[in-house]
Specification:
Elements (H helix, E strand, L loop, with lengths): L1 H7 L6 H4 L16 H7 L4 H4 L35 H10 L14 H4 L4 H13 L9
Length: 138
């Protein structure tokens, strides 16, 4: 009942009101192993790794979950382990880092391992192109 009242008073906006309808729609990006397509594919990572993909505590996650990894290149970023797309793709398919250690089981590897090679190569290219950030700079 309280939510309905807040909605009626305009304190809670619906999704259509949050969209800037004056902006032109985004143009489709060709499916290819490019940074541009990788940016599109990496949108699936934002929920846990944050808008900047720098990781940190996952809002709303159970307290026992580890912080999301920093996916930006540089010092404390996880991408330092993946100098080649092949290493990155192997991790996404197996859930194991190049040194054989397991990535957190919080990662949805049952789904991630089914992403095609073009999308994973594109994601690798995009993540490697990001500006380095400190872990947790969501």
């Amino acid at each position: 009942m309280i939510v309905k009242a807040l909605y009626g008073l305009g304190a809670i906006k619906d999704s259509a009101e949050k969209i800037d309808h004056r902006k032109a729609p985004s143009q489709p990006v060709a499916v290819a192993a490019t940074v541009e397509h990788g940016a599109y594919v990496a949108n699936m990572c934002v929920g846990c790794h944050g808008a900047t993909l720098a990781g940190g505590k996952i809002p709303g996650a159970p307290p026992e979950w580890p912080p999301a990894a920093n996916l930006t290149p540089g010092g404390d970023g996880a991408m330092a382990r993946y100098d080649t797309a092949d290493k990155f793709i192997a991790m996404m398919r197996t859930g194991k880092r190049p040194d054989g250690t397991e990535v957190s089981q919080v990662m949805p590897f049952m789904s991630l391992r089914n992403i095609n090679d073009t999308d994973l190569n594109a994601m690798h290219a995009y993540l490697k192109s990001l500006a380095p950030r400190k872990a947790g700079e969501r």
